Amino acid sequence: MKVLHFGAGNIGRGFIGKTMLQSGFDLTFTDINQNLIDALNYYKKYKVKLVGYNYEKIIDINNFQAVNLNNPEILNIISNVSLITTAIGAISLNKIALILAKGIILKIKLKSKTPLNIIACENKIQASSYLRDIIFKIIPIKYHEYLNENIGFVNCSIDTIIPSISSSFEKNTLSLIAENFKEWIVDKKQFKGTIPKIIDMTISNNLKSFIDRKILTLNTGHAITAYLGWIKNYINIYESIKDQDIKNIVKNAMQESGLTLIKKYNFNQQNHFSYIDKILTRFQNPFLLDKIERIARNPLQKLAKNERLIKPLLLAKKYNLSYFNLIKGIAAALYYRNKNDLESMKIDNLIKTLGIKKTLSQISHLQLDSQEINLIISEYTSINEIFSKKLYN
Ligand SMILES: NC(=O)c1ccc[n+]([C@@H]2O[C@H](COP(=O)([O-])OP(=O)(O)OC[C@H]3O[C@@H](n4cnc5c(N)ncnc54)[C@H](O)[C@@H]3O)[C@@H](O)[C@H]2O)c1
Ligand SMILES: O=P(O)(O)OC[C@@H](O)[C@@H](O)[C@H](O)[C@H](O)CO
Fold first, then answer.
1. CATH topology of domain 208-388
2. Rounded to two decimals, what is the model's pTM?
3. Which of 132, 210, 211, 226 lies at a CB distance of 3.0 to 4.6 Å from 153, suitable for a disulfide?
């Protein structure tokens, strides 16, 4: 089976590319970073080192192609593959929609009847449906029947931690370190044609709860670990989570979010709290060297209403549950300032122009004089007394 993967970054090379090749597929990577495409074509191989507690395994990855997204050949490839996956960052999905639409129109003109499934493997709730809506707006209505019959937009939940590696464990800069844990769950109902047999991919009839479970637990806790750790000048996630004050806030915030999920989906509380403890152990993995900067990236996105920090807060409010530790995490996110992160600098500018309250209301769509916004602001102003503030690196 032919597969095209958008985004040859950490998860693209370290998990999806690896998985597709191990499943015996013909894989092409595409990316906007020409240096990366050149490196993939030069080395023609890389290694993924899987690390866990008392576990290490090196996997050789080879037999793939790599093409720049701007290479005109990409349209032929899109029209010809049966599976497309993406891992480019949720905010970039709208940037690939046009090229995907053009490739699909070419496929229609070539009278292809081979189903194409598209799986957006981003940390965004129902990312493939989001991409589908944009593509449907671009492609003329006369082709929509074809799209409904032949193009599957398959939502997924994807969980495996793959850090950005600054010093590789070997000369080939494409090689990566990844954690041994992996969980990739896709929605059974959204596939067109036969569901491909992909190793490490689990098919579910109940995906919505799995997506919320992952993003509103792991990513909620990860983000809070990063923002609190940044304030305390830690570099890596494992250092931050080793700090008992931070760990307490993170664990309590994950449990606050967890109690909303238990209420919403009727999860078993003991199982869900064990799931939280397992995630905390994963954050503590010292072999990953996962930088706080990677986890804290794009705070504007992370502070959005439907995202990992605000969504559990609103759910807790709805169900009349406690949310004080989530408030601490949100306040910490507002402190994130990193010159390498444009979104954090945008938040800084907004705070300077609008003040903290209006900024937060604008970013998160919380009501200006709501109880939760007042609690966040109060935490924001007092956070400096608890931790040593660090505004610029
Ligand atoms: N790394 C992880 O641990 C992990 C785990 C689960 C999910 N994710 C999700 O996967 C996505 C990618 O994360 P990552 O850590 O691999 O990031 P990354 O920055 O390492 O990789 C992203 C890649 O996408 C490329 N890209 C960006 N815009 C593009 C475009 N318009 N067209 C083609 N390529 C483009 C970039 O050049 C880069 O190579 C994110 O949505 C992230 O939330 C990451
Ligand atoms: O990729 P982001 O920016 O949405 O979130 C950063 C990390 O929390 C994330 O990449 C995790 O490592 C991943 O979601 C683990 O499954």
1. N-(1-d-carboxylethyl)-l-norvaline Dehydrogenase; domain 2 (1.10.1040)
2. 0.96
3. 132
